[in-house]
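Handoff note, outgoing to incoming analyst
You'll be picking up this chain. Sequence as last confirmed:
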Amino acid sequence: MADHEAIKELAQVLVGELSSANKAVATAESCTGGWIAKAITDVSGSSVCFAYGIVSYSNGAKESLLGVQNRTLSDHGAVSEAAVMEMAEGALNLSGADICVSVSGIAGPDGGSEEKPVGTVWFAWAVRNGSRVDIEAICKHFDGDRDLVRELTVVHALQGVRERIES
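Most recent structure output, in case you need it:
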């Protein structure tokens, strides 16, 4: 179970690691509503490693701000591997950051389906490696109420950035 203190501690460690590695991070968030960016920017000194944060809660925002293709959203939905990969790449390109994390999910209590139940969250991390961008996406299913699903999403997103700092 995540809690706000654990998120704060994780963000502090992450900011230290990003700063030491001279890397910058960007976020593209849907279901977390900016919480990942908030966790990072709550840390004093984060301005040296936080490049950009975009909350693209609606499909229209995903398209207009991040360049997610309308066809991706109509064929796969906003909560999909394809959508979060396009979100991550779009934010990385806009920001000039070294690493971007994107999230899109169904925090509940409504909005779930048999195919995508409440607690389904897709993550993508885009990492700039010279002239190429490597993108990895995964799906997680979290149990709990809306707040817990969102907290666990923030924790997983931050941990994922930490894992990719050295790549």
